[in-house]
Amino acid sequence: MGQILTGLNRRLLVSLALAALCAAGCRSDSTSRSTAGLQGAVPRGGELLVSVRSEPRSFNRHAARDTTTDLVSKLTQGSLIRVNQVTQAVEPWLAESWTTAADGRSVTLHLARDVSFSDGHPFTAGDVLFAFEAAYDEKSGSALADVVQAGGKKLVVTATDPLTVVVTFPSPFAPGIRILNDLPILPRHKLEGALKAGTFRKSWGLDTPLSEIVGLGPFLVSEYVPGQRVVFARNPRYFAKAPDGGALPYLDRLVVEIIPDQSAELLRLESGQLDMMTSEIAPDAYAPLKRAADQGRVRLLDLGVSRNADGLWFNLKPGALGGDPRAAWLQRDELRRAISMAVDRKLFADTVFFGAGVPVYGPETPADKVWYWPGLPQTPHDTAAAKQLLASIGLTDHGRDGLLDDPQNRPVRFTLLTQKGRPNLERGAAVIRDELKKIGVTVDVVALDSGAVIDQLLHARYEAIYFNADKTDLDPGTNPDFWFSFGSAHVWNLEQRAPATPWERQIDALMTRQIASTDEAERQSLYADVQKIFFEHAPIVYFVAPRIYVAHSVRVTNLTPSEYRPQLLWRPDTVAVAR
Amino acid sequence: MTRGLGVVLVTLALLAAVAAPMVAPNPVDAHFAGLLNAPPTIVRMAGEDHAWHAPFIYRWRLVSQLEQQYEEDRSAPTALAWFSGGRLVGSPDQAAPLLLLGTDSYGRDVFTRLLFGARTSLGLAVTAALGAMLAGAVLGGLAGFAGGMTDDVVMRATDFVMVLPAIYVALALRSVLPLVLTAPQVFALLAAIFAVVGAPFVARGVRAIVRSERQLDYARAAQALGASDLRLLIRHLLPAAGGFIAVQMTLLIPAFIIGEATLSYVGLGFPDPVASWGTMLHDASSNIRVFADFPWLLSPAAAMFLVVLGVNLVLQNASRGVKSIL
Amino acid sequence: MIRYAARRLAFALFLVIAVSSASLLLSRLAPGDFVTESLGARASRQAIEQQRARFGLNRSFGAQYRDWLASVARLDFGYSMLYDRPVRDLIPERAANTAILALTALVCATLVGVPLGIVSGSRRGGLLSAAIRTASVVLLSMPPLLTSLFLVFAAARTGWLPIAGMRSATVPAGGGFMDLIRHLVVPAAAIALPLAAMLERLQAQAMAEVIAEPFVLAAVARGVPRSRIVWHGALKAALRPVAAVYGLIIGSLLSGSFAVEVITAWPGLGSLMLQALRTRDVYLVAGCAGAGALFLACGTLVSDLALAAIDPRTSDARAEAA
Questions:
Q1: Which terminus has fewer CB within 10 Å in chain A: N or C?
Q2: Are strands A164-168 and A106-111 parallel, antiparallel or unpaired?
Q3: Please, are residues B30 and B109 in contact by the beta-carbon 8 Å criterion?
Q4: pLDDT, tens digit, for every residue of A46-66?
């Protein structure tokens, strides 16, 4: 593979080394180590019992984007490449090797030979083209359409022979083929008719006969019991081989149980009726699992600091607050910077995550060794300075009652929306409210269900929100929807026609260059500039990133844990259980 | 004797609710940041020196933050302060608060919130239950007495209310109401919702009783003697349903206390720092450690049990003055 | 009698449609819809509009409602957006699962609650009746969420029973039926315990009242044995209030219990409805609400018939015939 690594992939080697260092460093805590890289023969056969909170919505990843549907797709389908979630390197999968053209805009992928779908039908470049057709099909409106785009434009994909595919990016695109990680290669022979007929999104619904659902992935769906479980059996035709040349996957069966309640899920894991969950454990579940781990019933893994932190942002859309006179100060940078100073991040971590979190001051957390800018200033916890900053925009305590007022003598008060039923968000919002009370700012926390929060967000009918703005992938180039002012995840002011502020225009320009550049050092320095601007204007105020813990039963071996979901199952073909 | 116990329990609950600001050892909105899920402080008289002292407590020292384990810090006893700052009893030291029932996951004093929660929860449940009784008795009485068309309309309307998913009604209400509601507004809203939701259950039973009582000799006699319909209904038929209504009351009160948490979940809850038993229990039940490690978080259930038992004892003996004859 | 039954059935049909319609309307009033919920905060406006158009959510409520009513007339209750399947296909399976749970719980609760109510109602002041009453009040004061959680917790700690689900992934020795029974214990107990307490309270009250009636006093005076009075004479009259609510209980149990089904991962109607509510899958909500309405309408009918059988004076059927 070494000889085909071109300039585009060089930075991935760098990140590989760095992330490996981090992985080694992060996991040296008191909690027991994983059995990753177990010496000796990996046991074959057996059954793994995992849990999810909700049912899959379809067997077709193009039809839904929820985590369970994604998990089912990861188990049953293959993709051209696989991003190693531990090292962040792009690894070959259905594509054995690839070469990048000199201009960096097109990549020639060589497909693995003698690969067939689980029904025996051979896999060719035609299936790859079909996967892109499905993603770009206007009629079906695929959930993956925005995943396989570069700079908002489609890729051009051609097949030069049955085993060679050329992917051409519309413009120089630094993240490159890593975006293909999320595109399942579907069987053209099964689904082409549906795509042509315009019923593609409806095909492979949950009522499909299971024999119709074929794939290139390590597992087959062997049983689906609505509301209870999806059972997967090993795909005997799975093409990838173990390091010892033996067949993969190691497991014979993988059972995904649907357990809607978190407590029931935990109790099952703790009492040995479950091998693992597909999400990290909540902070208050740490103690019982630690006890179970001390008694040797489960293994508890510390996967280090999360790369995502929840954030607070104000509605910065010009005119969104109507005639509300508070708009004069609600949309000011100073207010957000004052909030960042007023909230004690240590107290925040102690209250929300029981101490298992680190302070965060910008969009990247220190966990990201490649993209985090170490020069990022750390906002001190300083209530006096926060008050001074607020006074500079006319918010002072007129009535000498400990509460701030604006120049028109109205109290400084705003509504903070958050999601109901998410303890980390609800607790975080409560800490923000209590901390701001200390500098005389009154916050009314309103917790609504997620649909209602998103609705208010999309219609820009809110004052402030405390919510998650999770990134989908590490490379900032894969998150244009967040960074660009026209982006659909540019949450504080969505989908702007033209940048509303000079600094957003600046970020747009920097990110355009950052995505197009293939020079690793330049990309990092451009992204550092973006983080600097982000820090100065603080469109989103971040407080604390939690540590991620996962637990699994002691019989599970050969895991490669990563702090991204699904932490323990992102490479399901190599997971094994001791007999 | 049982009646006496009931009266005592109900009186105690009312007293706790009324006197909450005086009895509570801590302010209702106090958060003790270093004391999340801390166990109850033990009030001691016997010191390390084996001598007797005025009641004092030891502060909790954090042993494991992530696991929320505490141990007593025996080095510094804090004597309790009586009748200071308008409180019956409290701790003079902010760092060593008196936590009679421990703290919740936000570090708030459970005992204090239990007292203040009694105001919210009992006030709401009793108001709503009375409203449901009144509406249910009137509708059920009317339906049972008048029969025919009236009966049909009323009973089918109650069926409709009973099957309508209340969560949806609450969600829809949430969307048409302003985002920030004051505590009195929430109180009125919840009381009204509960009264409407509870009334059908009362109405059905009352209707059945009134309908059958009406056929009894005494009712016919009263009618023959020229009693007006209204008088017959109010003086003779509805009292016959008294026992049923009393039992319904004892069923509805706990249901409403619990139901408040459900509506709070869809956004129709009391704003902080207003405490309520339903929400306290709801928060407790989201944590599996509650049974093994933090049993004090279940104290609202215990309080609810005592109140419901009290109401049961009082109402049961009040209804119809039944004597045991066997 | 036939006319009466026909009228009640017609009303049941009306109730089902009215409740489903109201659910549909309320869902439109609530903020957010299936598309905002399923696409999440990152979706582009274009993608949202496209999806809304796909599911017909961009139409006015009037148009949406008209189409829905027209399809209901053909016994097609719309399409679940969440599962991309007809609502009609989803509900029966879940309803059957709920029925297994509900009927088990109901039978247990009745067998426990009613006899205990008779005992505690017929002998006031005794230690036994005080104990029964106390137990009932404890159970009534526990939120269903907490009761279920406690039972699940106990099952996990003792290791005697499976914690969640309806059937094991691999059918163990002893066959599928025993496996189902083992899975039933926790959720059925979570439903049956408070229900038994409620029945006990109602039955005790009714019993106490009947025993105070002159006809019982007369029987005592005639020297009829106490047990005979309680179990024969008074019982029949005292079943009235329980019968009045029994139908309602059946109806509401069959519509599923949110808390119990979610915590014990029982794949019933309650958890389906909760999922539909959460994801704003409006047609599925309307379908579930309609199914609930149907069960309740049947329940009230059963209740009324039971009442008529116990106490012919209240019979609607007779009144109709007269």
A1: C
A2: antiparallel
A3: yes
A4: 999 999 998 898 999 998 888
Cα–Cα distance measured from residue A408 to residue B61, given in angstroms and rounded to the nearest whole number: 47
Instruction: Give the count of alpha carbons within 13 A of A490, CB side only.
Output: 24
Nearest beta carbon to residue A430 from set B106, B175, B288: B106
How many Å apart are CA B259 and CA A330, to the nearest integer? 36
| ipTM of this predicted structure | 0.84
Residue A157: φ, ψ to 5° = -125, 130
Extract the runs of DSSP E, i.e. beta strands, from chain C: 79-80, 85-86
* Residue where the block lists tokens 């809607």: A260
Cβ–Cβ < 8 Å for C105, C188: yes
d(CA A279, CA C73) in angstroms, rounded, equals 44
Contact C307 B208 (CB under 8 A): yes
CA distances from A9 to A1, A5, A16, A88, A469 (A): 11, 6, 10, 11, 28
Within 10 angstroms of residue C258's Cβ, the number of other Cβ atoms is 20
Cβ burial, residue B213 (10 Å; 0-12/13-18/19+)? buried
> For residue A330, which of A343, A342, A345, A313 has the smallest C-alpha distance?
A313
Nearest partner of A202 among C52, C83, C90, C56, judged by Cα: C83
Cα dihedral A245, A248, A250, A251, rounded to 10, equals: -160
SS3 content of chain B, % helix, strand, coil (to 5): 60, 10, 30
CA of C313 vs chain B CAs: smallest distance (Å): 6
Q: Which structure tokens are listed for A469?
A: 């703005």
User: Does B179 sit within 8 Å of A351, measured CB to CB?
Assistant: no
Q: What region does B196 belong to: left with phi over 0, alpha with psi -120 to 50, or beta?
A: alpha
Single pTM value for the model: 0.87
Phi-psi category of B155—alpha, beta or left, where left has phi over 0 and alpha has psi -120 to 50? alpha
What is the pLDDT, as a whole number, of residue A37?
45
How distant, in Å, are the alpha carbons of A75, A180, A450, C250 from that of A92? 17, 11, 37, 58
From chain B, the residues in CB contact with A448 under 8 A are 174, 267
Inter-chain touch A285–B288, beta carbons under 8 Å? yes
| Residue bearing the bigger pLDDT, C241 or A218 | A218
A116: which DSSP letter? B
List all residues of chain C from 40 to 99 with a beta carbon under 8 Å from chain A: 40-45, 47-48, 50-51, 54, 82-85, 89-90, 93-94, 97
Residue linked to tokens 């379809």: A58
CA distance linking residue A485 with residue A495, whole number of Å: 6
In residues, how long is chain B? 326
How far does the CA of residue C243 sit from the closest CA of chain B (Å)?
Answer: 9
Task: Record the tokens describing residue A237, joined without a space.
Answer: 């035709």
DSSP labels for C122-180? HSTT-HHHHHHHHHHHHHHHS-HHHHHHHHHHHHHHH-SS--S-SS-SS--TTHHHHHH
Q: Coil, strand or helix: which one is A441? A: coil
CA-to-CA dists, residue A50 to A572, C69, C182, angstroms: 11, 42, 21
Where does the pLDDT of residue C137 fall: very low under 50, low under 70, confident under 90, or very high at 90 and above? confident
Three-class DSSP category at A16: helix
Q: How is residue A557 annotated by DSSP? A: E
pLDDT of residue C313: 57
Please tell me the predicted confidence (pLDDT) of residue A262. 87
- The Cα B214–Cα B252 span in angstroms is 27
What is the gyration radius of the CA atoms in chain B, in angstroms?
Answer: 25
Do B292 and C153 lie within an 8 Å CB cutoff?
A: yes
**Cα Rg for chain A, rounded, in angstroms?**
25
- Among C28, C128, C140, C298, the strongest candidate for a mutation testing the B interface, having the largest count of B CBs within 10 A, is C140
Cβ-contact C320, C8 below 8 angstroms:
no
Residue type, B222: A
